[in-house]
Amino acid sequence: MKIVAVQRATGWLAMGLGAVALTAMTGCSTTVSSYQASAENAAFLPRSAASVAVGQFVLSSEGGGRRMMLRGVHRLESPIGEDFAAYLGESLRRELALAGKWDPKAPTEITGVLLKTAIGPTGLLTQTGEIEARFTVSHRGLPRYETVKRAELSWDASPINDVADTKAQQQYPLLVQDLIKQLFEDREFQAALK
């Protein structure tokens, strides 16, 4: 009887250790915080700007963007679509909607290619995020404007992985917000919406 109990306990212990090892090897994943549109960004769009549709946002063939690894242990994933290109497209749509400039049937459309997105440590207590994307404004299929915008943001981080990952999860939407701000304040972009 004791041998069976010891074998069961050993079996449960082995399964538990195996699960811990598997989690350590594969890491766990968390999703980026939901994007909140900014009234400050909306204010950059002139009243004379026409409403626009948001078309397809895709990943560059050269870069990542499907998910990001944080400190080589945890995966950071987009809560929208399959990747961070979809997150960027939805974030832009929310900004345009807040400004009263989004119309899914408008003849003018903004599309994009996510060229790069990454978060990494820049020291024991600092993390930096970066994002780069190509935006194209087309009217009835004819390109009017194209640009590449890049944003970078640094923040204090913790040496404890879970705390640092939570901070990265919260900071990523602010990084995207800064990228969209750069687009909205570009005079040539504003002109392309008229």
Describe the model.
- With 194 residues, the chain is α/β, with parallel strands linked by helices.
- It has helices at residues 2-26, 39-42, 84-98, 161-184, 187-192; strands spanning 29-31, 53-59, 67-70, 74-77, 108-123, 126-139, 142-156.
- It has a 4-stranded mixed β-sheet with strand order 2-5-6-7.
Main sheet properties = 4 strands, mixed
DSSP summary, beta strand count: 7
Q: Which of globular, elongated, flat, extended, rod-shaped describes the shape?
A: globular
SS-derived structural category: alpha/beta
- At the fourth level of CATH, the homologous superfamily of the largest domain is Lipoprotein like domain
Work out the strand percent: 25-35%
Strand order of the largest sheet: 2-5-6-7
Overall number of domains: 2
Rounded radius of gyration (Å): 22 Å
How far from one another are the termini? 83 Å
CATH architecture of the largest domain: 2-Layer Sandwich
- Indicate the mean pLDDT: 80
Note the total helix count: 5
The helix/strand series, from N terminus to C terminus, equals: HEHEEEHEEEHH
Q: Which fold name is given in CATH as the topology of the largest domain?
A: Double Stranded RNA Binding Domain
Low-confidence stretches: 8-26
User: Percentage of helical residues?
Assistant: 25-40%
CATH class of the largest domain equals Alpha Beta
